[in-house]
Amino acid sequence: MYVKWIVMIPPILSLYFSARILMNNLRYDEAALGMLFSNMDETAILISVFAVSMIIFSATRVMDLIDLFWPIPGNDEIIAAMIWLIDIVLVYIFYRVATVTVPAERNI
What is the DSSP secondary-structure string of 41-65? Predict the structure, then answer.
């Protein structure tokens, strides 16, 4: 019974931190982007991890399309597990970006 709610934690956190990034960008305008790109080493790592996660997400979409025409047993479970893992990675990325784009005197 509680497993259903535990599985929902990464998508909810991903939604929360992406909303925080949007709010930081709207509130601080160019300052938020300046803070993000002034820390180039961390930004480069975050963009690389984001790119890899999007490649894996695209692979799940291709697997889903293949499953439409040639049903493969267990394919849906593999896709769901991969998307859930991608969501955990996105939570990390969105958290790091949200903490970088807020001024130092404020905490999220």
Answer: HHHHHHHHHHHHHHHHHHHHHHHHH
- What Å distances lie between residue 93 and 40, 63, 66, CA to CA? 15, 24, 29
Query: Which residues, including other chains, have CB under 8 Å from residue 25's CB and lie 6 or more apart?
Result: 32, 33, 101
Q: Residue 83 and residue 54: Cα distance in Å, rounded? A: 10
Cβ neighbours of residue 43 closer than 8 Å, sequence gap 6 or more: 36, 37, 100
Distance between CA atoms of residues 45 and 48, nearest Å: 5
Cβ-Cβ contacts under 8 Å for 67 (sequence gap 6 or more):
75, 76, 79
Residues 42-84: tens digit of each pLDDT:
888 988 999 999 999 999 999 988 988 888 888 889 998 999 9
Q: At what angle do helices 40-69 and 30-38 cross, to 10 degrees?
A: 100
pTM of the entire predicted model: 0.78
